[in-house]
Predict the 3D structure of the following.
Amino acid sequence: MYQYYNPNPIANRTDDCVVRAIAAAFNVSWDDAFDAVAANAKAMGEVMQSDHAWGALLRQFGFEKDLLPDTCPDCYTVGDFADDHPHGVYVVKTDGHVVTIVDGTVYDSFDSTGETPIYYWRRERNKRRVHNV
């Protein structure tokens, strides 16, 4: 299921997907997510959109990374992934996009359920709220 989600207080942009996904995954404001991603990226000498920078942030807060099998790379979608994962918090990477799924619901500023997931980060639902991300 898709749920419109855009915590960006100023713009209705689609190029801040990393920040939006982190905000949704940690249940924090867009500003707090932006600051956390920016600080982590700076400490690593990376840009904010670097998978390495935001992935390390997720890892620091208990997320684990998993790859998706490449058995049918064009037929499995974010929507299928959400249906297959009705419990927990998932940050899913597609080609050029990042989206968060919480308990089977895709939270994004547009309906990205048709995109093809490449890999994902997961954490149990009861650990979702993180202060001082």
Notes: Strands lie at 2-4, 64-67, 89-94, 97-102, 105-108, 117-123. The longest strand covers residues 117-123. Residues 2-6+14-125 form one domain. The mean pLDDT is 89.
